[in-house]
Hints:
The protein is an alpha/beta fold. The protein has a single domain, classed as TIM Barrel. The protein contains 14 helices and eleven strands. It has helices at 5-9, 16-23, 27-44, 84-96, 112-126, 144-152, 167-173, 182-195, 212-225, 253-271, 280-285, 289-295, 328-340, 354-361, and strands spanning 48-51, 53-58, 101-106, 134-138, 157-159, 198-201, 204-205, 229-234, 275-278, 300-301, 344-345. The strands form two sheets. Strands 2, 3, 4, 5, 6, 7, 8 and 9 form an eight-stranded parallel sheet that branches. The protein has a three-stranded parallel sheet with strand order 10-1-11, with helices on one face. Helix 3 (27-44) packs across helix 10 (253-271) and helix 6 (144-152) packs parallel to helix 8. The chain is globular. It binds S-adenosylmethionine and iron/sulfur cluster. Iron/sulfur cluster binds next to loops.
Amino acid sequence: MHKTIAQILQQEEFSKKDLISLLSADNTETELIFKKAAEVKSAYVGNSTYFRGLIELSNICTKNCFYCGIRRGNKKVERYTVPDDEVIQAAKYALDRHWGSVVIQSGERQDKEFTDRIEHLLKEISGLTGEKPGITLSLGEQKPEVYERWLAAGATRYLVRIETSNRDLFYKIHPKDGLHDFDKRIRALYDLQKAGYMTGTGVMIGLPFQTTEDLADDLIFMKELDIDMCGMGPYIEHEDTPLYEYKDLLLPLEERYRLTLKMIAILRIYMKDVNIASATALQAINPDGREEGIRVGANVIMPNITPVKYHASYNLYKGKPQIVPETDEYINNLERQIAMAGDVVGYGDKGDPKHFAKRNKK
Ligand code: SAM
Ligand code: SF4
């Protein structure tokens, strides 16, 4: 029997077929999904949006992912590392504004100089306020002992996007060498959970060769892994990357945008109490994109607090450097838009994922 979207939304559990139907919903039906996601969000995590100050620490990367503008092989990139004092200053800006959390993101490096430096920065940032802040890391795959050291130094959450849960697609968007390994990427997520991190993953939406079934599998992957946080966003092509060759296969940007909002809403309904970030890449397509993400189920926004002089060099995809610098005025405006989306900013609260507390009680 063919089920309508309204019927599927009344269920407590969803089969893969149900997820595919939700992902394939037309515009009118999608509004039902968005409405349900807003209800679930309100009931399970409340109507606070948490700000995390995002510091794009460095664009130096040892990897060569086919989609990423700062991949090792892109010789057009001017490489930078934000010096310690500027990192601390940026973190202080966020914590002084009572955001409660920062995110440190960077190209992947596993050398000792890098891992020691992160440990040092974590200790410095942890000591900035009386109460320990929430610190999320997005620094790629590391050895288990490195995760442990960073946790001891003050990190609490870690984000490693699987990028796609389809092994074949993973190898279409990454070089097939020891450095880019699907199983190692999954291993990293287990290692992080084992170490005691609030663990996040996510995917890119609208990749060339990606199907609706792949996206349904991505949602199932996240649920099976019992993740605490998710950051997923539209794939946006970058002309100096190998994947650009397939640009003609891509959905129009506007459709990738809509599909991302749908993925956010469906994940909210499907996993209920996880934290979901409204990705910066949504904003690159639509200036109000992150606020729309909040309206359909996301509860985290990561304003970029990296000093502006580095922004253009952390150019992962087309359109990113054009994003307006996130000044005080911009943040005030963001706050107003969040209110319009029905939320309040969760100032003075780290906003740890409710799912993590529950997962640990199991
Ligand atoms: N190097 C770390 C890693 O890969 O996990 C963290 C930084 S990396 C720049 C963060 C994320 O950017 C990746 O997980 C990927 O999903 C996203 N990204 C890279 N290139 C992108 C693109 N062209 N479009 C959308 N997202 C992209
Ligand atoms: Fe490096 Fe991350 Fe970009 Fe891959 S996605 S090239 S690991 S910064």
